[in-house]
Amino acid sequence: MVTVDSTAREMVAALRDREISARELLDLHLDRIGEHNPELNAVVSLDEERAREGAAAADRSLASGEVVGPLHGLPFAFKDTHAVAGWRTTYGSPLFADHVPEADDLIVERVRRAGVVVVGKTNVPEFAAGSHTFNTVFGTTLNPHDPTRSAGGSSGGAACALAAGMVPLADGSDMGGSLRNPASFCGVVGLRPSLGRVPEWPTANQWESTSVGGPLARNVGDLALLLSVQAGPDPRAPLALGDPGSAFAPPLRGSLEGVRVGLSVDLGGAFEVDAQVARVVEESASSFSGAGAQVVRAHPDLGLAEDTFRTLRAWHFQAKFGRLLAENPGSFKDSLADNIRAGESLTGADVARAYAQRTALAERMRLFFADRDLLVLPVSQVPPFPADREFPTEINGHPMDTYLDWMRSAYFITVTGCPAISVPAGTTDDGLPVGIQLVAPHGGERRLLEVAAAFESITTPHR
User: Does 154 participate in catalysis according to the annotation?
Assistant: First the structure.
C-alpha cells in the first residue's frame, strides 16, 4: 500500500497501475502538510484548491490512456526562488511578496511537463542567500528531526518538506551548498550537478555558472528519477551538456568494489570541522572499505577556492541586486546587503583573477581524479545549529566571523565545477543527521549516483 513515506518510484508505479489515484495521493500529502507544516514552516503559498484541480486533471489523463510523463500525478512544491507561472513566487524577499510570474523557469517547465501536481512553493532565505532558511515574508523553516534546529538552506524548505513526508521529491539550487547543506541537515539526499548538467533559463548572465539547479529526494534512486527530468540540453542554454536526461534514470546498479576513494575531513586543514561531523566522515571510511573500495587519506589542493568563491559571489550579487539594494536599502538583511556591497569595489582584474583561479582549480581536480574515482569530505562543517541564530558563530572554539565561514566544505567544491552529492551517513550523539559529500569528476553524475546508491544500501539499515 502506498503511503506518504513510500518512494517516489513506488508512487509513480502505483498511479500508473491505478492502485491509487492522483487525488488520493494528493490527499495523503495534504494531510501530512496539515499535520507538520504549521510547526515546521516548509511549504509556503499552499493552494489546495488548485492542487485538487491538478490532481483531477492527472486522473483524467490516466483514465483516457494518454501517454504521461515520468512524474505524472506526484504532488510537488517548487523552491520559492524558481518562477512558476501563475503562482506566487517571492524569492524570500518583501520586495516580491506579491510577485506572480507570467512564465516558468526552465527547470520548472521540465518538471511540470513531466506531470507533477503543483501544491505550492518551499521556503527559502532571502534571495537564497545563506544556508539557514528564514525571511520576513514567511518566517523560519525548522528541522523536522529537532524543531529547535535549522533545516539548512537555501533549499531548506524543500529538504524539510521531503524529510517530513510533505512531498515525495523536491527541486533546489546550489551556489555555496544550497542543495547539499539542507540535505545533510534534514537527512535526505541532495545533488549539486556538474556545470551545464541542469540548464538554467531565463538568466541575466548566461555565462555565470556559480549557481546550478538540481534535485533533492529521500533516497538516491528517487533523486536519479528527478535528475532524469531536470537534465539535458536546451537551445536556450548554450553551455548545457549534451547528455539526455534519460541517461540518469533509475535503476541504479552500482557497486563499491574497487572504487578508488580519497577521503579527507578538512582538505588538509583548510577549514574547521565540528568533532561529531568529523567522526561521521571518518567512520564512513570503514563502510567504503568494507564494501571493497580502496580508501586512502588524500585531497586536492583547493587553497585558491576561498578567494575565488568569495570574489565571484560578491561580483554576481552586486550585478544582480546592486540597483535593487540602492533603491531599497532597508529591505535587505544585513548579511546579504554586506555581500552585495562587497562587489562594488571589485575591479576587472579581480574578476579575471577569480576566473583564472577557477580554471586552475578545475585542472587540480582533473589531476586528482586521474588515479581516483571519488573524493569524500564533509557536506557541512557543523551539524544542524539552533534555529534562532543566523549562522554558527564558532566551531570547536574557533570563531566564524561571517555567515559564509562555516560553509567552506561546500563552496570549495562549488568552484571546481564538479558534481557533488550529499548522502546521509550518520548522526550526532543527539540524533541529528549528518551527511557526507561525495564528489566525482566533471560530467560524472551517472557513476556518482551509482556509487552513492551503493553506499546508501550498506549504511541505511544501520541508521
Answer: yes
The tens digit of pLDDT for each residue in 395-437 reads 999 999 988 999 999 999 999 999 999 999 999 999 999 999 9
Contact 369, 397 (CB under 8 A): no
Single pTM value for the model: 0.98
Res. 460 pLDDT band, cuts 50 70 90: confident
Domain borders along the chain are: 8-462
Q: Which residues pair with 140 in a beta bridge?
A: 134
198-213 average pLDDT score: 91
**Integer Cα distance of 121 and 86 in angstroms:** 12
CA distance 230 to 175: 17
Q: How many other C-beta atoms lie within 10 A of the C-beta of residue 169?
A: 27
**What CATH number was assigned to the domain covering residues 8-462?**
3.90.1300.10
Q: Which of 21, 93, 131, 154 is catalytic?
A: 154
Strands 43-44 and 146-150 turn out to be: unpaired
Q: Where are the alpha helices (DSSP H) in 64-204?
A: 106-113, 156-163, 180-186
Instruction: List the catalytic residue out of 45, 178, 228, 284.
Output: 178
Q: Where are the alpha helices (DSSP H) in 343-436?
A: 348-368, 408-414
CA–CA separation, 116 and 71 (whole Å):
6
Helix (H, G, I), strand (E, B) or coil at 112: helix
Please tell me the predicted confidence (pLDDT) of residue 463: 47
Helix axes 48-63, 22-40, angle to 10 degrees: 160
How far apart, in Å, are the Cα atoms of 121 and each of 152, 250, 252? 17, 26, 29
**Collapsing DSSP states into helix, strand and coil, what is residue 339?**
helix
Annotated active-site residue 150? The verdict is no
Per-residue model confidence as pLDDT tens digits over 41-51: 999 999 999 99
Three cell numbers written together for 395: 566551531
* 79, 155, 211, 284: the active-site residue: 79
pLDDT tens for 69-126 read: 999 999 999 999 999 999 999 999 999 999 999 999 999 999 999 999 999 999 999 9
User: Do 423 and 377 meet the contact criterion of CB atoms below 8 Å apart?
Assistant: no
Q: How many other C-beta atoms lie within 10 A of the C-beta of residue 116?
A: 27
